[in-house]
């Protein structure tokens, strides 16, 4: 499994409670671009439409910038490939106030997959507490090594 893109902000902005894995429906030139590592998932999230899940905000630049297909959009909405039972469970959890956020995009046996995290958004004060906690842990580790 080769990581193509990692969403570092997701762990900071959301408190991830559960991780899921799904495929992404891509066109041919999008798949080539993603496999080259040219993908940005920062700020992306998944929504439900008509009983299916879609990934919004994932940016995939064109594979060949000078040979772009007509009507190509870098932030096109992409369908997530999951079983119906999995989709029903996820939709039920999204309805309770959780957000479905992409954590990383990777390849598995030649297929492009996405790791999704079900999480609750953190408030500003929670983020500050998290930063303080990390700093104190870093200081403690620094003093122990002396």
UniProtKB/TrEMBL annotation:
GO cellular component: cytosol
Higher taxonomy: Bacteria, Candidatus Joergenseniibacteriota
Classification via Gene3D superfamilies: 2.40.280.10
Presence of keyword RNA-binding: yes
UniProt KW Disulfide bond keyword: no
PANTHER family in UniProt: SSRA-BINDING PROTEIN (PTHR30308:SF2), TMRNA-BINDING COMPONENT OF TRANS-TRANSLATION TAGGING COMPLEX (PTHR30308)
GO term, biological process aspect, one: trans-translation-dependent protein tagging
Entries under Pfam families matching the protein: SmpB
Subcellular location: Cytoplasm
Function: Required for rescue of stalled ribosomes mediated by trans-translation. Binds to transfer-messenger RNA (tmRNA), required for stable association of tmRNA with ribosomes. tmRNA and SmpB together mimic tRNA shape, replacing the anticodon stem-loop with SmpB. tmRNA is encoded by the ssrA gene; the 2 termini fold to resemble tRNA(Ala) and it encodes a 'tag peptide', a short internal open reading frame. During trans-translation Ala-aminoacylated tmRNA acts like a tRNA, entering the A-site of stalled ribosomes, displacing the stalled mRNA.
InterPro entries: SmpB (IPR023620), SsrA-bd_prot (IPR000037)
Molecular functions per Gene Ontology: RNA binding
Chief location of this protein within or outside the cell: cytoplasm
Name of the molecule in the record: SsrA-binding protein
Superkingdom per UniProt: Bacteria
Keyword field: Cytoplasm, RNA-binding
Family label: Belongs to the SmpB family.
